[in-house]
Design brief:
Strand order of the largest sheet: 1-3-5
CATH architecture of the largest domain: Ribosomal Protein L15, Chain: K, domain 2
Strand content: 5-15%
Structural class: alpha/beta
Largest sheet: 3 strands, parallel
Shape: rod-shaped
Helix content: 25-40%
Length: 122
């Protein structure tokens, strides 16, 4: 029968924990709890709780104003906004013709102006 793990490690300083300092308290973890969160654990705590949301945006929408959209329309009755490469319509400017927008998001102001002209947003 072989030796147990304790017997195998008798007489060895590290007992399988690597360097001798690695098994003292929470030394190899870099401290206990949030210790070091202002320096070496910054990314672990602050980038996961709050700041990350401000630093990176998860997929921004491509937007276009009604003013910029008017030259692209060219007397069409229906427009698929995704084919033009945009996701959302913003309300700056006016629209004169009745157009049906498919696969589009729109702000409340833009929807009101489109519906006032006789169009719709789906």
């Amino acid at each position: 029968m072989g030796k147990s793990k304790v017997d195998k490690l008798r007489g060895k300083r590290s007992h399988g924990k690597g360097n001798t300092k690695n098994n003292r308290g929470a030394g190899c973890k870099g401290g206990r709890g949030r210790a070091g969160s202002k320096k070496h654990k910054f990314t672990k705590y602050y980038l996961t709780f709050g700041i990350k949301r401000r630093l990176c945006t998860k997929g921004t929408l491509k937007t276009i104003n009604l003013v910029d959209l008017m030259p692209l329309i060219e007397d069409k009755k229906e427009i698929n906004l995704k084919e033009l490469g945009y996701d959302k319509i913003l309300g700056k400017g006016n629209i004169t013709c009745a157009i049906k927008f498919k696969k589009a998001l729109a702000t409340n102001v833009a929807k009101e102006k489109i519906e006032k002209a006789g169009g719709s947003v789906e």
